[in-house]
Amino acid sequence: MGDGKVLVLDGGFSSQISCHVSTTAEGDPLWSARFLQTNPEDVFHTHLDFLCAGADVISTNTYQASVEGFVKHLGVSSEEGLGLIRLAVDLAERARDTYLEDNDGTPRRNLKPLIAGSVGPYGAYLHDGSEYLGNYADKISSETMKEWHKPRIKTLLESGVDLLAMETIPCFKEAEVLINLLKEYPSAKAWLSFSCKDDKSLAHGEDFQTTVIKCWEANPKQLLALGVNCCAPKVVSNLLRGINDGREPIPLVTYPNSGEAYCPEIGWTDKDKVDSIDKYVHEWLDLDKTELKKEIDKVLSSVPGHGKLRFELRDDKFSDYLMLMRERDARYTLYHENLALELKCKELVNSSQCHQYNEEQGDPVILRIALDRCREQLSATQSKLKKMIDDYSDTVPRREYDVLENKHNELNKKLDTLKTEYEALENCYRRVVVIIAAQKKSLQEELSEIKERCRELERAGTPRPQWEICADFIAGGRDSK
């Protein structure tokens, strides 16, 4: 690197490896790094795919790899986690060696493919999409980020990568940490690329061009290039345009995504709303020609008497790129056609050799058809779910939904508290009713007893005539009927 040639990087690793494994990395807290443990051979074949397609540089499958992440999500020890990072480098090197052997040791364009150790941001470890926001920079200290990055960078360099790819960095704070950490390994080289939210600013809000210049001036000896990745391709030109005006040119690197938006809950969205990346490549290459044109015009304007001098720019870089793109496309097409034919041949050979099959497992042809149908249904269901989620997000704004949900939860808590108090009061009321009923019954019995005693006293207190004495004088006496 550094000779001014245009180099072609590999593509999205998680997308390509899904052609070899039966699942995708979307939603996984380790992203495609999990396949280092579960599918190492598929990692190797994915690297080989990119080399056969024309990549000059391949990145190790360590973007979201970290010792803490492996320990937490794979249940391995710290040393085993470092071993997986070393394995990632070994697989990339094996793919390069295989590619060179298949080409009789003669690399394309006489350029031996380079291996870049992928170093993703701290936000990728958090698995909440914050590498596209950079908000963790306001809470996480520089020392914490340094201690998190250091084991991976140290292991990648010791394992023999040609350079480091410090990528998708959303804030200047973390970029500064990485640049200072790189100085601890004086022989190491790296490129540094940022995550941007628009055509002017980093994801965290800092000015992109100002940040790039600061980073370059902080360590020009070890940084090979600076740029942007994992952003919409339509913002790249404005981000890079004019960055080298009036200064020694800074080598640039860019590898945006296809323009889709990533949502941590459902993955990549807006696939049907983006243009092909080929539409933008010519524009990016023209940026370099524009910068050269400005320099030439400046020189010509400073030379007296040569106002009519004309200078035609050489188009070497653009011609090289077109040649590489055509060769890459041809190699990629031939490689995958060959791979498809080999798989088809294997299926035919296996089907011809296996006339009998296990009845318990079922007819393999029927099972294959059923599997294809299941995949179709899964795809249709996922599309339907995405549409429902999109419709729901259009109906109820997410922010309002969160507020209402929090309010709903608070009201539920208050309702539970009131319900508990009500039940306690109801139990107390029931006890009081029982006590009052018992007291009422007791009082009624006591009242009846008192009334009976009163009647007895009344009878006892009423004077009775002595009929023996007054019977002859009081009518209706003792003998009267």
From TrEMBL:
Q: Does the keyword Metal-binding apply?
A: yes
- For this protein, what is any one GO molecular function term? metal ion binding
Q: Which UniProt keywords apply?
A: Coiled coil, Metal-binding, Zinc
* Annotated coiled-coil segments of the chain: 371-460
GO terms for biological process, alphabetical: methionine biosynthetic process; S-methylmethionine cycle
Q: Which Pfam families match?
A: S-methyl_trans (PF02574)
Q: Which residues form the Hcy-binding domain?
A: 1-314
PROSITE patterns found in the cross-reference section: HCY
NCBIfam families noted in UniProt: PRK09485.1 (NF007020)
Q: What is this protein called?
A: (apollo) hypothetical protein
Lineage here is:
Eukaryota, Metazoa, Ecdysozoa, Arthropoda, Hexapoda
